[in-house]
Amino acid sequence: xxxxxxxxxxxxxxxxxxxxxxxxxxxxxxxxxxxxxxxxxxxxxxxxxxxxxxxxxxxxxxxxxxxxxxxxxxxxxxxxxxxxxxxxxxxxxxxxxxxxxxxxxxxxxxxxxxxxxxxxxxxxxxxxxxxxxxxxxxxxxxxxxxxxxxxxxxxxxxxxxxxxxxxxxxxxxxxxxxxxxxxxxxxxxxxxxxxxxxxxxxxxxxxxxxxxxxxxxxxxxxxxxxxxxxxxxxxxxxxxxxxxxxxxxxxxxxxxxxxxxxxxxxxxxxxxxxxxxxxxxxxxxxxxxxxxxxxxxxxxxxxxxxxxxxxxxxxxxxxxxxxxxxxxxxxxxxxxxxxxxxxxxxxxxxxxxxxxxxxxxxxxxxxxxxxxxxxxxxxxxxxxxxxxxxxxxxxxxxxxxxxxxxxxxxxxxxxxxxxxxxxxxxxxxxxxxxxxxxxxxxxxxxxxxxxxxxxx
Length: 456
Ligand code: NI
What we know:
Elements: E1 15-19, E2 23-27, H1 30-36, H2 39-42, H3 64-85, H4 88-91, H5 101-110, H6 119-126, H7 130-139, H8 144-150, H9 156-164, H10 171-177, H11 183-196, H12 205-211, E3 212-215, E4 218-222, H13 226-244, H14 247-267, H15 280-283, H16 289-293, H17 297-308, H18 313-323, E5 329-333, H19 339-351, H20 356-359, E6 361-367, E7 386-388, E8 394-396, H21 397-400, H22 402-405, E9 412-419, H23 429-432, H24 436-448
Parallel strand pairs: 4-7
Antiparallel strand pairs: 1-2, 3-4, 5-9, 6-9, 7-8
Helix pairs in contact: 3-5, 3-11, 5-9, 5-10, 6-14, 7-9, 11-13, 14-18, 17-18, 19-24
The site of nickel (II) ion has 6 residues, from helix 3 and helix 11.
């Protein structure tokens, strides 16, 4: 039996991880160090934070491991600041109880522990859910994570899981990890901006950490910090529009989706014997936690490489398109108006000999940059960003900021129709010579119906 942790006891010498975004990540508890050393946490090194976005922004090779450390570090800095300036002893119900620190740090570190390779697409095909898996990893007595957490006390893993599930009773802790301005978003916006090489995500984190404060209902910001919070909202909006919703990354995502869809079909057809490696339990729709924890980006790549040589022409072609970065390309369309044209475009593609089930896709990406809490409309527990005046009174952000008001409650994004790139790439004539009249008809349709051409 291993010794229980005394979480009030700090490491004699703190450990640090060098981090390009935060300088150093400071580890002060043996518990945190032991969590980082578990095999489930180390696995996050082998999963890219941004999935297919690295095909658009080649610098974006950073992992879920570095993001998780970053969220931990921001949370740690916030706890330090809260206990120094806003302890319960000083502030009463508005204050911070530092006994909450360790549960907040663990939840911050583990909030993405259930993510797998290419999560978004993987979940759509195999029906997994990373939030549910995070909970299972934390609660299952088999995992090293659980065994480490249980050394704090028997109820502790449940406590950490409840923060991630938003059911933990202290709203300050829940909102630090998950709200419209939380340590998770503060880290990923800055980290993703850094590694993609764009400047949009670069809001003033130092200033935000200076003006953030606890309140009775959760987290608030001192009123004089309003412009730093505005800047964060605008950064977030721009990162979504320019990076997360990039049409080429989405093209890679739909190509991957079609590839896995084809593989799933062949797997269940007895005349093919499709090698699926570590994905087998997922194709069988019966997987254990351990099966899930064996997956990483490399396991997926191994399958794609095997499939590239498969005798099914659709599977091998799609695997090649993914591995060699030849994504499906898109036109932007107006839903409710352009569908008849899209049907026509689909029929042209079919006429050219493509199976549209695997070679076309609709993709919509929408985001709500910011919203205030609408009591009759929103789920209870949804929060808004609040500013606190020196007298303790509160104002909701969009009421105080015209800039934020202009983005509030407005959904932004677009819908695209994806097709093989040879239909849209006039410079690659040799690839399309076989069905050139069809390609011309396709492009004429796009022009005449004012559907927006790619690269827009
Ligand atoms: Ni995260």
